[in-house]
Amino acid sequence: MPDSTPSRILDELAAILGPRGLLTEPADIAPHLSDWRALYRGAAFAVARPASTEEVAAVVRLCAAAGVPITPQGGNTSMVGGATPDESGRHLVLSLARVNRIRALDPLDMTMTAEAGVVLKAAQDAAAEAGCLFPLSLGAEGSATIGGVLSTNAGGNTTVRYGNARELMLGLEAVLPDGSIWNGLRRLRKDNTGYALRHLLVGAEGTLGIVTAAVLRLFPRARDTALAFCAVADEDAALALFRRFRDRDESAVRAFEYMSGTGVDFCTSHIEGVTLPLEARADHYVLVDLASPRPDAQLREMAESVLFEAMQAEEVTDAAIAANEAQAQKIWRIREEHPEAQKREGASVKNDVSVPVSKVPEMIRRCSAALRELIPGSRPVPFGHIGDGNIHMNLEQPEGMDPAAFLARSHDIMDCVNAVVRDLGGSFSAEHGIGRLKTDMMEDWRGGAELAAMRAIKAALDPQGLMNPGKVLP
Description:
This protein is α+β, with helices and mostly antiparallel strands. It is about 35% helix and about 20% strand.
């Protein structure tokens, strides 16, 4: 603990939080100091673990009075270092893990009120037990929390049908930088009463306040589903197949995911139990997930019909339709295990970018060519949500190259991808956020009036700059 942090802060935190609510031993603090990708390792003098919104507010008020910076943390699954403190040791990490109750679930209103520490998978399960669906789904759903996915406006696999986290939230409760509690937990579809503060906090990555609870939108559960794994001729064929399914029944398309042959090869090579459900490998694949609340939607028949048309047009070269839920889950693993498979293959650089849906094939081709030219022997691994324009344009190190030397080129690689993305009217961060990794890009991409407005909002709500400093704003 630095000299500038008086010991009385720890005493007061202990009084607020009790014996279970404060971690001060280095071994207990350590898991909270590094991000999932191990890009950053910070320092903190303690980890606060409040068990209620009132305790969160008390901690924030104490830190505001003492000038102590706070790093809020949910499931610590950020891909951009958004929940990692800096190296100064001045920060208090504030974990929301114990603020984890589902306060209410109303199948008639189709809403769930969940606290920030509720794990995403637990929210999904609670909705399912009530005969409903909470559709937000992503690879880290077993660890990511409601507060975290809202603070980053997470997207995920079903954005093409249900939207990002922002679209799945009706109301919010948060502790503001001065320690006051804002209760905006309204279960209303219509509430036209001034500024929508809830939307300001969603996506702010904890820089404007700490989300403590939210009213989430629920949907009717699926009563008919179909899932297909397809080999497609190229990137254009992948997008053409998406259009075919969308034109047939847009409301049935729950997810539409693109994967390169290289990425799928990594998965089948490194992940136990992952196998290719087709007779031969291909250079391009698509996963199509269909769902409907209507039990008579005949989605399998629709999938067979659309795929037959696509094969006639030589867009699809082979396809397999899951016969049951177990097969569907096994196919989904091919997509979900991409990050882990890339990690096991070697060092990789992540590029979470988006372009207009119509530009996705061009983006993949141009970025792949530019990356191979930038680092000869490197292996592009594009995959992701082609249906909403968000592709993870990742790059795997050349075989035999020193991983550290490859990772030292990270910003060159990101700049290479971003040059193409900008030319196509896209964004340098689609769903992972800014965190610590991409703050240096904000001036170039969001400078001028937009960034000035963000800074003015930050200064108005957090004049001391204590809320997750070093994130989002350059």
